[in-house]
Amino acid sequence: MSETVERHEFGAEVGRLLDLVVHALYSEREIFLRELVANAADAVDRRRFEALTDPALTLPEAPKLRILPDKEARTLTISDAGIGMGKADLVEHLGTIARSGTLAFAKSLAEAPAADKPSLIGQFGVGFYSAFMVADRVEVTSRRAGTEEAWLWASEGRGDYTLAPAERAEAGTDIVLHMKGDAEEFLEPFRLQTIIRKWADHIAIPITVARDGQDEPANEGTALWRKAKSDVTEEQYAEFYRHVAHAFDTPWATLHWRAEGMLDFAALLFVPGMKPFQAVEGERESRVRLHVRRMFITEEAGLLPPWLRFVHGVVDTEDLPLNVSREMLQATPVLARIRKAVTGRVLSELKARAKEPEDYAKFWENFGPVLKEGIFEDAEHRKDIAVLLRFRSSAVEGWTSLADYVSRMKEGQEAIYVLSGDDAAALAASPQLEGFRAKSVEVLLLSDHIDAFWPDRLTEFEGKPVRSVTQGTVDLSKVAGGEAAGEAADVTALLALLKEALKDQVSEVRATGRLVDSAVVLAAPQYGPDLQMQRLLRRAGRETGGALPVLEVNPRHALIARLAANAAGDPLLGETAGLLLDLARVQDGDVPREPAAFARRVAAALALA
């Protein structure tokens, strides 16, 4: 047999991560059992679902999860009759740790406060490896359903593992933990039953713990979503959320309701209380679990749109057959109606919670960027989402809504103005705001990546158009107050010369009245991407569709007045034009197109001064 044993290395960084898992999480050691039981329950659910289309995978008549403590051998075994794993599955799932980012996880785990460390395990998908908190060796014997071949995966958590052929009479998985000397408490049946009741009482699959030669029930297996709200405690809600979301925080919102009539379904959904370390921006599919008559079917039914993918939970319906296929799920009008109802209910909950600004701010800071995606891609719900949006502003502290912005609009103000960039603090100091600030016109500051995309889709709010301050010509002349000081120079000739000097770099050079202290500023043409979108496209190595920026000059600025007075006979105007354009770029948080040329021009200007 030794000749067939294969030894594999985890890799240096994974070895360090295992060490952190083992030595940094002792305050929550019991969590290992919750993780292993949850994985086993998921394996049974997956086999049940796959058996709907492949009878060869049919589960045993009464599948259960068995936990067998053996004090004499100092082992704890968790057995299931789930889908099982083949050799490739073992390598993929147990040989690769923290696929969402091993180094990031290790750093977070090392630096996080003790109270936060359990959350890190669940959010980085390394729950299985919490077994090494209590075991100095872990052995996994697994046989994939529908195959005759079993494999043994084994590791001592020191940076490598072995794979060898094995024997298992039925499909499923056995996990054997060889317990550490200080983990004897987890070989006591009563202690194990207590942990199961705490963490996994809601799992529908029966869980038993071997005691004095008998398998004793350890969980009730109740479908929490089928109970009346009055019969469920906050603790039960929290524990179920942690199970279904693979998280350890407390939900920010819990939605539990039953729909009857045209549709018959029960739903229990949760909005997380904290942003996961594995960003929801990466995975765009909703993972709300679909059950039919309490039986798990799939978490890929798309029960919520991608812009609500941070919501976790269960929807259980009577209106679909148990043998529903994936193809049928995509076509059935029943599921389409359920999707609409569930989406509407989540939006209603968010609108209700948005009435409490401090509480809603917690949600917005976690998931606001994801919610904004709905403005861009979902025309049906665009107006509903718009009332939920929150922004930083040039005029008020904290978060503000579009409705609050409209209520503060100045007399004569025609539009809702927004400015997009990479950092809200930098945007607040941008020269783009000088004219608006002089007129006391508020501008919303947008600093999420999605903010470069959605404003074009939300054309108006409460009858007011939404406009980027960097796009087209902004006319604030109808707003009283804040008139520009000083006399404007005649820059007609200067504009023509600058346009000629910069003909390959700008689409237009024009005078503007929206600057106070700055000599120049960039703008985008009326049609096409605004400045932030152009920057994002350049960073991605993509063309901007030929949309060159517009250079706006302040005719009341001393520098522009001096250039205008000497424009006709200035032999260095070409160099000056390039310098002005680069200054405008730098002011907007961009970089000069040619840094060396920019440095040379600045040095030459200083020498002349």
Automatic annotation (TrEMBL):
<dbReference type="InterPro" id="IPR036890">
    <property type="entry name" value="HATPase_C_sf"/>
</dbReference>
<feature type="binding site">
    <location>
        <position position="35"/>
    </location>
    <ligand>
        <name>ATP</name>
    </ligand>
</feature>
<dbReference type="GO" id="GO:0051082">
    <property type="term" value="F:unfolded protein binding"/>
</dbReference>
<comment type="subunit">
    <text>Homodimer.</text>
</comment>
<dbReference type="GO" id="GO:0140662">
    <property type="term" value="F:ATP-dependent protein folding chaperone"/>
</dbReference>
<keyword id="KW-0346">Stress response</keyword>
<feature type="binding site">
    <location>
        <position position="80"/>
    </location>
    <ligand>
        <name>ATP</name>
    </ligand>
</feature>
<feature type="region of interest" description="A; substrate-binding">
    <location>
        <begin position="1"/>
        <end position="326"/>
    </location>
</feature>
<dbReference type="InterPro" id="IPR020575">
    <property type="entry name" value="Hsp90_N"/>
</dbReference>
<feature type="region of interest" description="C">
    <location>
        <begin position="536"/>
        <end position="609"/>
    </location>
</feature>
<dbReference type="InterPro" id="IPR020568">
    <property type="entry name" value="Ribosomal_Su5_D2-typ_SF"/>
</dbReference>
<feature type="binding site">
    <location>
        <position position="39"/>
    </location>
    <ligand>
        <name>ATP</name>
    </ligand>
</feature>
<feature type="binding site">
    <location>
        <position position="326"/>
    </location>
    <ligand>
        <name>ATP</name>
    </ligand>
</feature>
<dbReference type="InterPro" id="IPR037196">
    <property type="entry name" value="HSP90_C"/>
</dbReference>
<comment type="function">
    <text>Molecular chaperone. Has ATPase activity.</text>
</comment>
<protein>
    <recommendedName>
        <fullName>Chaperone protein HtpG</fullName>
    </recommendedName>
</protein>
<dbReference type="InterPro" id="IPR001404">
    <property type="entry name" value="Hsp90_fam"/>
</dbReference>
<dbReference type="Pfam" id="PF00183">
    <property type="entry name" value="HSP90"/>
</dbReference>
<dbReference type="GO" id="GO:0005737">
    <property type="term" value="C:cytoplasm"/>
</dbReference>
<feature type="binding site">
    <location>
        <position position="85"/>
    </location>
    <ligand>
        <name>ATP</name>
    </ligand>
</feature>
<dbReference type="Pfam" id="PF13589">
    <property type="entry name" value="HATPase_c_3"/>
</dbReference>
<comment type="similarity">
    <text>Belongs to the heat shock protein 90 family.</text>
</comment>
<keyword id="KW-0963">Cytoplasm</keyword>
<dbReference type="GO" id="GO:0016887">
    <property type="term" value="F:ATP hydrolysis activity"/>
</dbReference>
<keyword id="KW-0547">Nucleotide-binding</keyword>
<keyword id="KW-0067">ATP-binding</keyword>
<dbReference type="GO" id="GO:0005524">
    <property type="term" value="F:ATP binding"/>
</dbReference>
<keyword id="KW-0143">Chaperone</keyword>
<feature type="binding site">
    <location>
        <begin position="123"/>
        <end position="128"/>
    </location>
    <ligand>
        <name>ATP</name>
    </ligand>
</feature>
<feature type="binding site">
    <location>
        <position position="173"/>
    </location>
    <ligand>
        <name>ATP</name>
    </ligand>
</feature>
<feature type="binding site">
    <location>
        <begin position="100"/>
        <end position="101"/>
    </location>
    <ligand>
        <name>ATP</name>
    </ligand>
</feature>
